[in-house]
Amino acid sequence: MIFCLIILNTVTLAMDDYPRNASKDQFLHICNEFFTWTFFAEMILKMVGLGIKNYSRDKFNLFDAVVVMLSIVDWTISKTVNEEEIGGAGEALQAFRAMRLLRVIKVARQWTALQEILSKTMKSLKDISNFSLLLFLCMYIYALLGMEIFANIARFSTDGDLITDLHAATASGVPMLAPRENFDNIFKALTTIFIVIIGEDWNQVMYIYVRVLGTDNEMWVSLYFVSLMIIGNVMLLSLFTAILLQNFE
After folding, report:
1. Which residues pair with 157 in a beta bridge?
2. Confidence of residue 192 (pLDDT cuts 50, 70, 90)
3. Burial environment of residue 9 by CB neighbours within 10 A (0 to 12, 13 to 18, 19 or more)
4. Per the omega criterion (within 30 degrees of 0), is the bond before 19 cis?
5. Percent of the chain with pLDDT over 70
6. Cβ atoms within 10 Å, residue 106
7. DSSP 57-110
8. What backbone torsions phi and psi does residue 176 show, to the nearest 5 degrees?
9. Domains annotated on the chain, with CATH
10. What's the pLDDT tens digit per position in 25-51?
């Protein structure tokens, strides 16, 4: 019965869309109230039947309790606060309501196969802690090296054309924009390294800096990005996948 209610709750969460429809919003609001108090009643019955001590020993019970209490807070806010009157704070309230999606994880309680997958995933996350440090160190080293070589040299005009002569453009007062992938500071450099490692159009990033530094430095620029791709993507991410798969054997 609870499993069916969780599935129905998941379906109603997926029905929220734009543009808003008043009658549909009212229906979804009623459904949310029904599921909120149904899951609250389930939590109370479990506490009474098992006792607080036995109830709290199960981590899934504690997770259910947190989700239920968040739902109660959400319901209380929806009854006491008018979103139209609080202006921009209404957007923060909408973000808080996204916590309802945590109810979907309750399916793992009833679905044994999914529960096993989640437990193995959590075990895998513990196993890759040392690997994550190695990956971060690799990214950090390449980010620092990239800042030394590529910082503040890639700029686009407001028309989207790459500026190859930065000094002349600066002297002329040409408005300039930095590309999304740049090495101007450590945070942007780490973001760029991450983009390259996951293979998100990394060759285009390389081509931008090849054009900026000229064909005389093409080999060194290519060596930087290709070595980053091989070490970060082919080797480290493949090792990451192997560690994950090992726990699922």
Report:
1. 176
2. very high
3. buried
4. yes
5. 85
6. 22
7. HSHHHHHHHHHHHHHHHHHHHHHH--HHHHTTHHHHHHHHHGGGGGGGGGHHHH
8. -130, 150
9. 2-114 (1.20.120.350), 129-246 (1.10.287.70)
10. 788 778 878 888 888 888 888 888 888
